Amino acid sequence: MPIHTPGLPGNIPPADVLWARWALLAAIDATTEAEASTYRTGMWVDHDGLHYEDGGCTWWAMSRVGEGRFVLYGEDESSGVKWHKPPIDMLAGGPDWLPFDELRERAAGYELGCVYWFEDGAWSRAPYPEDLRDDGLSCGMSMFIEREQVLDALSARLLESAGRLDAEGILSDAETRSLTPDRLVDVLRPETPGDEPPDRPAIVRALLLAGIAVPTAQ
């Protein structure tokens, strides 16, 4: 289903599903070297949550904020929210558990394009004026929101011997928190032929940290 512009809460899958898709793609490229870096780009998972940073004009983060509560926020250059006149309060109607200090600091620095929060099984956001054309959700997050895009990205990183059905099974297991790390790592290939093989220990750590995999039985 196409994502409306500006985004609607109903465009986003349940938070645990979105989390699983994002975390799976982030884990694929996890490396021990990147874990120790103070500056990262691409996708990654850490103790603060999920991150996407393209090194240019797009960044996103998703964090758990207690049981059944998540916050999704970031910016894509397509967003007109921060430039809108009169200003849009992206935190209007937000619950008291949002990370207000960080969000307000980013908004004050014109670094924030939109904020969505998930509670009681549903996504919400602040109301937008009718003349707002885009908040960046579609351009910035479609790669995780649209399941087919996730499958395309995953399939492109699997060995030729693994097909679309393997990607479908891996993604389904991640979405149900039943993925065994070996099922993924054993069929992964480097992004570019000739690159170092996937960093198995780092990938396993990322999968387990994100909570989308079960430890491999010893």
Tell me about this structure.
- The protein has 218 residues and is an alpha+beta fold.
- It has one domain (9-210).
- The chain contains eight helices and six strands; from the N terminus they run ααββββαββααααα.
- It has helices spanning 15-28, 32-35, 100-108, 137-145, 147-155, 164-175, 181-185, 200-210; strands spanning 42-46, 49-53, 59-64, 70-75, 114-119, 122-125.
- The chain has a six-stranded antiparallel sheet.
- A hairpin with a 2-residue loop joins β1 and β2.
- α1 (15-28) runs parallel beside α5 (147-155), α1 (15-28) runs antiparallel to α8 and α4 packs across α5 (147-155).
- The longest helix is centred in the N-terminal third of the chain and has 14 residues, at 15-28.
- It starts with 14 loop residues before the first helix and ends in an 8-residue tail after the last helix.
- The model has no long low-confidence stretch (mean pLDDT 95).
How many strand elements?
6
Distance between the termini: 42 Å
Q: Structural class, judged by helices and strands? A: alpha+beta
- Coarse shape: elongated
- Taken as a percent bin, the fraction of beta residues is 5-15%
- Give the helix proportion (percent range): 25-40%
Strand order of the largest sheet: 1-2-3-4-5-6
Taking all residues together, what is the mean pLDDT? Answer: 95
Largest beta sheet, briefly?
Answer: 6 strands, antiparallel
**What sequence of helices (H) and strands (E) makes up the elements?**
HHEEEEHEEHHHHH
Number of domains: 1
Unreliable runs, pLDDT <50, ≥5 residues?
A: none
Radius of gyration: 18 Å
* Number of H/I helices: 8
